[in-house]
Amino acid sequence: MYLFVLIKNMVIMKQVKLILSLVLAFTLAAFSLPEKLEKKVDKELASYFEEENYQKTAVDISAEAKQKLNKNFDPTLLFKITHNEKLLGYAYVGSAPSKTAVFDYMVIFNEDLIVAKSKVLIYREEYGGEIGSKRWLKQFNGAQKTDELKFTQDIIGISGATISATSMTNAVNNVLKGVNTLYDNNMF
Amino acid sequence: MKKVITLFLLFMVFSTSIGQTIKDSIQSSPKNQINSAQRILSGNAGKAITIGGYAQLDYNQPEGSNGEIDVHRLVILFGYKFNDKTQFVTEIEYEHVNEVFVEQAFVNYSIGNNISLRGGLMLVPFGIINEFHEPTTFNGVERPNLDGFIVPTTWRELGIGVNGKFNDISLGYQAYIFNGFKPADEDGNPLLTGINGFRGGRQKGIRSVVNSPTFAVKLDYYGVQGLRLGLSTYLGDTQADDEVEDLEGANVGIAMVGLDARYRKQRFSARGQFVYASISDSKEYNILYSDANSNLGSAMLGWYVEGAYNLLSLSKDQKLDIFARFENYNTHFNTDGIEKNKAYNRYDLTTGLSYHIAPGVVVKGDYQFKDNEGQKYEDVANQLNLGIGVWF
Predict the structure, then answer these.
(1) Residues of B in contact with A18 (CB under 8 A)
(2) How far off is chain A from B183, nearest CA to CA, in Å?
């Protein structure tokens, strides 16, 4: 009898534990970047803004503004970068398709919402990794939120990496569009 | 049962939140194992599988003879990601509708930011076309002849090695050990010849004979906007069968170097390639196969330059490139012990149009003026080519 009660309690504890860990897992995983990606983002931001102790917060978006955004722009991935109340800039961390995989990228904006730097954070296949080249990514610097960059016209491609180069151009365009929509709705 | 459900939920939550590709189906419990067809159907594999392909349909019309219309190549590509670091890529090719080949089948394993291990049946990294041969990526219905005879595309062999990119200095590299060319077939016919260059020597992964390793190294530089430069080297001996290995001339040594460049800016594009191959012991090889007239040279040299211009505005989805390519490929640049055959010093001038009706679909047409330095081939017919190419 005692054994049965003991086992029953153990099972209930286990179920409670499982439910708790489920909730924890969801909250942790859904609202933060994967650890490896987070580390790279932090390293890049610290390096670009020349500030180790910056603060990274999500931009507050109204439900109304959220509705106006395109599916390919996730406002929870747009971060405001500050240092002791002073605004340094913004950063968007997204992912886009390459030939047979998906790569993670970041677009850093200055305080005037002009593209300051782009970076390919994690590239997961052997085709098309050339888009990580600093020189190639420099082409996106200076883009305004109202710009729509045309591949082969505004952005020169890389022979042998056309798919990923087109994909990155589209990705940056989506980010610009999203930022512009939020700006028009006074979210900044 | 409840435990299984909660564990499953936990797993699903993690995978959907983090968005990584769902792992392979082989669970620790055999009860949950499913085969590849079931997995594809279940939709879970969708994130991990890539399917692509390319096809080339050609019509070749040499002057004065019957033309040939052919589904030259149909290639299906499968890519599968096991996890963030490990990927398998394979290309299966149908040539002329009834010949099946495996063009690539390799595993790529990322061991660091700038270095990946790769092993299996891979493309030998030499020149432009061998690696980038999808019909929508080059002008002209047929691939350049330099890349047919001297860099025998599609050149693929079994091997292992490393590759990676240093994006900070815009430099990519590939370094592999491969098995080499076969110098003769089972019936004792020479496969390396003056007329066909290295083309007949490819083993293509078909029960390849392996004696000694060959080395292929390629460096790619993409630091200048719009320009891509390549430097390729290939070094090694042929792999003769055991039965003939000890005969003098059974094997030859090959040392090749290549330089290539591709440029595209706005509507203008250009490319060029230079290849030099040096063959040791060709004299002994030709003596051994004198009955079959191998006529293998001791050095081969080839080069081409091509310029193209897009006649349409860049804002359109379509592209209409008008191009001209001049090629010279000489499989008897130098000979040892035999007389140079001037007919093997060949020239081609290819002019034509490539009309890209949408990204990935091209209709091509070109006219080739063929020529050579010698007498025997003086009636080398010029040729009209028309073709359709797709890549997805």
Answers:
(1) 6-7, 10
(2) 32
Ranges of chain B with pLDDT below 70: 1-47, 375-379
What SS3 state is found at B149? helix
The tokens for B8 are: 């499953």
Q: What is the pLDDT of residue B15?
A: 42
CA atoms within 13 A on the CB side of B121: 19
- In the prediction, which pLDDT does B25 show? 44
Interface contacts (A, B; CB < 8 Å): 109
Return the residue matching tokens 């290549």: B258
pLDDT of residue B23: 46
Reported as a single tens digit per residue, the pLDDT across A38-53 is 999 999 999 999 999 9
Show me where the domains of chain A are located: 1-31, 33-184
pLDDT digits (tens, 9 = 90+) for B105-149: 999 999 988 999 999 999 999 999 999 999 999 999 999 999 999
Q: How distant, in Å, are the alpha carbons of B10, B302, B325 from that of B260?
A: 52, 12, 14
**Judging by DSSP bridges, how do beta strands A86-97 and A102-110 pair with one another?**
antiparallel
Contacts of A136 (CB under 8 A, 6+ apart): A130, A158, A165, B170, B222, B225
| Helix H or strand E segment including A44 | helix A35-49
pLDDT at B111: 92
Distance of CA A5 to the CA centre of its chain: 50
Q: Hey, where are the domains in chain B? A: 1-47, 50-391
Output the pLDDT for position B24.
46
B169 to chain A: closest CA residue: A133
Q: Is B69 helix (H, G, I), strand (E, B) or coil?
A: strand
Helix (H) or strand (E) holding B320: strand B319-334
Please indicate whether, in this complex, the C-beta atoms of A124 and B84 are within 8 angstroms of each other. yes
- Edge-first strand order for the sheet with A102-110 is A55-58, A78-83, A86-97, A102-110, A115-122
The answer to whether the CB of A81 falls within 8 A of the CB of A90 is yes
pLDDT reported for residue B22: 41
Which residues in chain A touch residue B226, judged by CB atoms under 8 angstroms apart?
Answer: 156-157
Residue B173's nearest CA partner among B218, B224, B116, B108 is: B218
Would you tell me how many other CB atoms lie within 10 Å of the CB of residue B159? Answer: 22
The helix/strand/coil state of B166 is strand
Phi, psi of B65 (to 5 degrees): -135, 180
3-state class of A12 per DSSP? helix
For residue B112, give how far its alpha carbon lies from the nearest alpha carbon of chain A (Å).
Answer: 11
**Per-residue pLDDT, B123:** 95
Q: Which residues of chain A have pLDDT under 70?
A: 1-32
Q: Does B113 touch chain A (CB under 8 A)?
A: no
CA distance B261 to chain A (A): 10
Superfamily, domain B50-391: Porin (2.40.160.10)
Cβ within 8 Å, pair A134-B170: yes
